[in-house]
Design a protein that fits this description.
Elements (H helix, E strand, L loop, with lengths): L2 H21 L3 E6 L9 H13 L3 E6 L2 H10 L6 E2 L2 E2 L3 H24 L4 E3 L3 E5 L2 E2 L2 E2 L4 E6 L1 H9 L3 E3 L3 E3 L5 E3 L2 H11 L4 E6 L25 E3 H10 L7 H14 L4 E6 L5 H7 L6 E4 L4 E5 L5 H13 L8 H6 L4 E6 L2 E11 L3 E9 L8 H15 L4 E6 L3 H6 L3 E2 L7 H6 L7 E6 L13
Parallel strand pairs: 1-2, 1-13, 5-10, 13-15, 14-16, 20-21
Antiparallel strand pairs: 3-4, 6-9, 7-8, 11-12, 15-16, 17-18, 18-19, 19-20, 21-23, 22-23
Helix pairs in contact: 3-4, 6-8, 7-8
Length: 453
C-alpha cells in the first residue's frame, strides 16, 4: 500500500472516531423515502442505521408510505388525487391508507429485529384536518398539531428506536393522513435533533436541473454539495417559478428546519450503499447538506495549527505557486494568519499583512487539495476582506503567479507595481514575475463578496 493511500485511510478513521464522539447521545431524525423499500440495498441501509444506534446515536425513523398507499388503493380500486403535492384523502380511503402506513412500519420493524434492535411503532402524533384551502377541501388529509415528545424521549432513553407512521389522530380518535416529510420536520424541531435526514430515492439536489445562487458549489456529478440557510432561501427564491418538485419541497423543508433550530439537514441517496455513513463520518459529504450555523468556519490561527498549515502549503510551494515558509516564520506571523476549519480538520489558510497608507496584502493562501473546489478559499479571502475593513484599510493587493483568474472572480482587478507599498515594491521578486491584483474597500463594499454568504 502506498503512503498516500495509507495516509488517506488513517485520516478517514480519525474523522470517523471524532464524529462518533461528537454525536453520541445526539438525536437524528431520519425520513426514509417509500421508493427505497423495494431497493436491493435497503436492508443494508437499515444495518447502517442500526450501527449508528449501536454507537449511541438516538435514531428516530419516519418511513414514507406513498408507493405502498398507491398499491393498496389501486388493489381496492379507490381513486385519489393530489393538489400541490398533497393527497386528497376521502374518508373511505383512510382505513386503507392506515393499512399501508403500518405495513411499511412493520417491514421496517422486521428488518430492525433481524439486526437484534428493538423498535416501537407508536400513536404519538396529534393531528387536525388541513381543512379547505383555496377552495379545495382536503377531507381526511391532516397536519401535525402536537407530538407526545415526553413518551418519545423515554423510548429513546430505553435504547429503543421509535417508528412513526404517517398517521395522526385528533382528540376524538379520528385518523388523518399526514405528510411524512412534515412529520419528520416537526419531530426534528421538537426533539432538538442534531441532524434531520431525508434519505431519498433520487440523490441530492441537482445543480443542473435548477438555478443555483452565487457561491453555491456544484460537484462534478451535478449535485449541490452544501448550502447555508441563506443560500437555500436564495435557491428557493430564484426557482420559485419552476414546476413544483420533490427536490424543491425538500430544500423548502430544510430551510424551515434550519430556521427552526435544527443545525443541519442532509439530503442523500439511499440507493447507494453506505451513503448515509459517508455523509455522517466524512467532512467532505456526499449528498446535499443545508446548515444553519457555520459548519466550516474561518478563525485566527493558533500555534497548534502550524504543522497542518505547513502540510497544506507544501504542494503549492512545490509548484512555485507559494513562497516557502518555516514554522518559525508562521509563529511570528500568527496574528496575520487565519485557518479554515471543518469539524476539527484544517482545510486551508491565508494571511492579511497591513502596510502604511491603509493598504493590506492577502498572502499565504493555500487549500488542502483533498477539499479543493468546496468554496473554502473564497471564504478565507472573504474573512480577510472583512478583517481589513475592520482595520479601516482602504485597499488590498495580492501577488500571484497562477491564480489571477480566480482572484478576479472575487472582485480583484489587475494592478501594477505602483500599487504596492514602497516596502513591498522594493522587495518585489522580479524573477517570480508575480502579477499584481488589487481590491478597493469602500463603504459600499464592506460586505463579503457575493461568491460567499
Amino acid at each position: 500500500m502506498n503512503k498516500k493511500r495509507l495516509k488517506e485511510q488513517v485520516e478517514t478513521i480519525r474523522q470517523a472516531f471524532g464524529y462518533i464522539t461528537r454525536f453520541r447521545g445526539q438525536t437524528f431524525v431520519i425520513k426514509l423515502d417509500s421508493a427505497l423499500f423495494g431497493n436491493a440495498y435497503f436492508p443494508i441501509l437499515i444495518k447502517d442505521l442500526v450501527l449508528l444506534h449501536q454507537m449511541g446515536i438516538r435514531i428516530v425513523l419516519v418511513p414514507g408510505a406513498k408507493q405502498r398507499i398507491d398499491q393498496i388503493l389501486a388493489t381496492y380500486n379507490i381513486k385519489t388525487h393530489t393538489v400541490k403535492g398533497v393527497r386528497i384523502s376521502p374518508p373511505d380511503a383512510v382505513s386503507y391508507i392506515k393499512m399501508a402506513a403500518f405495513d411499511v412500519c412493520n417491514k421496517l420493524m422486521t428488518l430492525l429485529a433481524e439486526n437484534d434492535t428493538h423498535a416501537i411503532i407508536g400513536n404519538w402524533v396529534k393531528a387536525r384536518a388541513i381543512g379547505v384551502r383555496d377552495g379545495v377541501d382536503f377531507l381526511s388529509s391532516g397536519t401535525v398539531e402536537s407530538l407526545q415528545t415526553d413518551i418519545v424521549r423515554r423510548t429513546l432513553d430505553q435504547g429503543q428506536i421509535p417508528i412513526f407512521p404517517n398517521i395522526g389522530w385528533n382528540a376524538k380518535g379520528k385518523p388523518y393522513n399526514i405528510s411524512s416529510n412534515e412529520l419528520a420536520l416537526a419531530l426534528g424541531r421538537e426533539l432538538g435533533a442534531a441532524k434531520l435526514f431525508f434519505i431519498t430515492g433520487f440523490g441530492g439536489i441537482s445543480g443542473r436541473k435548477t438555478r443555483v445562487p452565487p457561491g453555491v458549489y456544484v460537484s462534478s456529478d451535478g449535485t449541490i454539495s452544501q448550502m447555508t440557510v441563506t443560500q437555500a432561501g436564495g435557491f428557493l427564491d430564484i426557482n420559485a417559478s419552476s414546476r413544483q418538485s420533490t427536490a424543491l419541497e425538500l430544500v423548502s423543508l430544510a430551510y424551515e428546519a434550519c430556521r427552526g433550530g435544527i443545525p443541519r439537514v442532509h439530503i442523500v441517496d439511499g440507493r447507494v450503499e453506505g451513503m448515509v455513513l459517508k455523509e455522517i463520518f466524512s467532512n467532505r459529504g456526499f449528498g446535499t447538506m443545508i446548515y444553519a450555523n457555520q459548519h466550516e468556519n474561518v478563525r485566527p490561527m493558533v500555534p497548534a495549527d502550524i504543522p497542518e498549515v505547513l502540510r497544506i502549503m507544501e504542494p503549492s510551494v512545490g509548484e512555485a505557486a507559494l513562497v516557502p515558509r518555516t514554522a518559525g516564520q508562521l509563529e511570528k506571523d500568527l496574528e496575520a494568519f487565519a485557518v479554515y476549519e471543518v469539524d476539527g480538520t484544517i482545510h486551508g489558510c491565508g494571511a492579511l499583512h497591513a502596510f502604511p497608507g491603509k493598504t493590506g496584502e492577502i498572502a499565504g493562501l493555500a487549500i488542502d487539495q483533498a477539499y479543493a473546489n468546496l468554496g473554502s478559499g473564497a471564504r478565507i479571502v472573504s474573512y480577510l476582506i472583512e478583517k481589513a475593513s475592520t482595520l479601516k484599510l482602504k485597499k488590498l493587493f495580492v501577488l500571484t503567479t497562477q491564480t489571477w483568474d480566480w482572484f478576479a472572480s472575487l472582485g480583484f482587478t489587475p494592478g501594477t507595481l505602483n500599487d504596492l507599498p514602497a516596502e513591498k515594491k522594493k522587495a518585489y521578486n522580479r524573477k517570480r514575475k508575480s502579477r499584481v491584483l488589487t481590491y478597493s474597500i469602500s463603504p459600499r463594499r464592506t460586505k463579503r463578496p457575493s461568491v460567499v454568504e
